[in-house]
Amino acid sequence: MTPTRRQFLLATATGAVAGATGGAIFRAAGGKACRSSLLRPPGALPEDDFLAACVRCGQCVEACPFKTLELAGADGGVALATPYFDAEKIPCYLCQGYDELECIAACPTKALQPVDGIREVAIGTAVIVEEICLAYNCVVCRSCWHACPLPGEAISFDSMLRPVVNEEACIGCGLCTLACPTETTSIPIRPACDGGGAGS
Fold this sequence. Notes:
Helices cover about 25% and strands about 10% of the residues. The protein is of the alpha+beta class and about 200 residues long. It folds into two domains: about 5-115, no CATH class; about 120-190, Alpha-Beta Plaits, CATH 3.30.70. Strand 4 (about 155) and strand 5 (about 165) form a beta hairpin.
């Protein structure tokens, strides 16, 4: 959805504040310039740089063929009107069936940088909540593995056929999150701390 004029003006003002204070906000927790809790589109710059470069135009949201992306609302603080997605609602389908990642192609400011294939995407990392994961509680389930675009690389199985996430290979698309059959997903995505792809 394209932001209203009011949202755009507020976002512009918010962006200026983010440029001035964003570094302090995102480094306060532990000295590392970590992203916000929002899952950003593929190719996103590190959060401070992303907030400075993103003009809140919404073109990436409009370009997404799967309607994955949405704009952060008023509760987003300095991230107001920036693109993100909720993997439990609609994950990033990595533009399967398309020639390129449409959100990156639509970005006019390079806040979303080109990536060299899906293995270079770094949205975040899947984390298995063993307490509620069916496979860790004596129920056969391979839903996350079947949904993963990199099965055997990002998600494999241990000797007891329980899923194991390879943090080096997981790209954080959230396809496993949506596929998980537990009422509260057993495999949420932890946002990346250094951007969404090779351009960061």
